[in-house]
Design a protein that fits this description.
Blueprint (H helix, E strand, L loop, with lengths): L1 E14 L2 E14 L3 E5 L6 H8 L8 E10 L2 E2 L5 H7 L4 E4 L3 H4 L6 H12 L5 H14 L5 H5 L8 H13 L5 E5 L7 H18 L2 E6 L2 H7 L2 E6 L2 E7 H6 L4 H8 L40 H5 L5 E2 L5 E2 L21
Parallel strand pairs: 3-8, 3-9, 6-7, 7-8
Antiparallel strand pairs: 1-2, 1-4, 4-5, 9-10, 10-12, 11-12
Helix pairs in contact: 4-5
The structure holds adenosine-5'-triphosphate and magnesium ion (MG).
Length: 337
């Protein structure tokens, strides 16, 4: 069953430098129990896409220019702030990219966790609410949960703070969890533990997850399907095997090739593809990746590729995609299992 359907979502920012088209015609869906990875370099529109879905973009400067976000057949983009607030946290919740700014430093963990229950689960008594908080902290492997519950954020390590954030987003057993992977805030070991936790949550509770990441290694291990974004646009989308074994888009291929070795450490960073991400104010009707693409031809610089649908869910936007027999051993680079 389709839980979430995003159709042709468009988001712009009106800035002094011009119009930034941060999400341009983005479409994907999510089934019950499915894990979707959204991958792309910094500035490719991953966070903006998810924040737009959650109604959390500052408007202005942001503006939703097109699209629908259907959840239970209702378009979230059309809901009032009050209705949206009821859905946030309870049905769809998001773990933000920076755990250090997402917790209020002046409030105890207990106050911040209990607030979530107070807002959404009005009928719970204080004792029940507290029990639920401790239970979730325990599930997430927080040592001495009673003590942490009564701590202030600054008394906790980065990893624990991240767990508290996850606890906050799980208190109400949401159907969809959006995890914007912290890229710099946590060390690699903690990051790996958090990813294990997410996997666990998905397996045990059937929670659908959208994982935003730079790291294709993570995606292979945890996700069922992948959306590769470039310059606010969709480069390629498909199940894990489509992306790793039947790669079509040169940008996806670049990401795969930039994994340093076959036995890459989980959580390690991708080596950047030569060149720099596009200026989103200057993107026109041409392929956003063309200035960096090894397969570029004149057409790519003057026309924007349409979306090609292959069998299944495999989709890409490229005039000169890789054929299966040109792929070399990109598929062998799949890591984890
Ligand atoms: N409030 C804002 N005002 C203007 N531009 C913005 C704003 N927020 C985001 N953008 C722009 O939108 C584009 C997409 O940003 P987004 O945060 O979605 O990238 P991202 O893929 O999440 O990157 P990262 O991996 O670094 O988190 C970027 O060009 C960014 O500069
Ligand atoms: Mg981001």
């Amino acid at each position: 069953m389709k839980l979430l359907e995003v159709k042709n979502l468009g988001v712009e920012f009106h800035t002094d430098e011009g119009i930034v088209r941060a999400a341009d015609n983005i479409s994907f869906d999510l089934e019950q129990g499915e894990v979707l990875g959204i991958v792309g370099e910094s500035g490719s529109g991953k966070s903006v896409t998810c924040l737009a879905m959650m109604g959390l973009l500052p408007m202005p400067p942001a503006k939703i220019t097109s699209g629908e976000v259907l959840f239970n057949k209702r378009d979230l983009l059309k809901l009032s702030e009050a209705r949206m607030r009821a859905i946030r946290g309870k049905d769809i919740s998001m773990i933000f990219q920076d755990p250090f700014t997402s917790l209020n430093p002046y409030l105890k963990i207990s106050t911040q966790l209990m607030e979530v229950l107070k807002t959404h689960a009005h009928t719970m008594t204080y004792a029940e609410s507290k029990r639920r908080c401790i239970e979730v902290l325990e599930q997430l492997g927080v040592p001495e949960p009673e003590i942490r519950f009564n701590s202030y954020p600054h008394q906790l390590s980065g990893g624990l703070k991240q767990r508290i954030m996850i606890a906050m987003s799980l208190l109400l057993q949401p159907k969809i969890l959006i995890a914007d992977e912290p890229t710099t805030a946590l060390d690699v070991t903690i990051q790996a533990q958090i990813l294990d936790l997410l996997k666990d949550i998905n397996k045990k509770h059937g929670t659908s997850i959208i994982l935003i990441t730079h790291d294709l290694g993570v995606v292979a291990d945890l996700c069922h399907k992948i959306q590769v974004m470039y310059g606010g646009r969709l480069a390629e989308q498909g199940d894990v095997d489509d992306i790793f074994y039947r790669t079509r888009h040169p940008y996806t291929k670049g990401l795969l090739n930039s994994i340093p070795s076959l036995d890459i450490e989980p959580g390690s960073k991708l080596k950047p593809i030569p060149g720099s991400p596009p200026d989103l104010t200057a993107l026109g009707d041409f392929c956003a990746f063309s200035p960096r693409c090894s397969k570029v031809q004149e057409k790519c610089r003057t026309k924007r590729p349409e979306r090609t649908h292959e069998t299944g869910q495999h989709v890409y936007e490229c005039f000169f995609p890789y054929e299966t027999d040109q792929l070399g051993n990109a598929g062998d680079r799949r890591v984890g299992s």
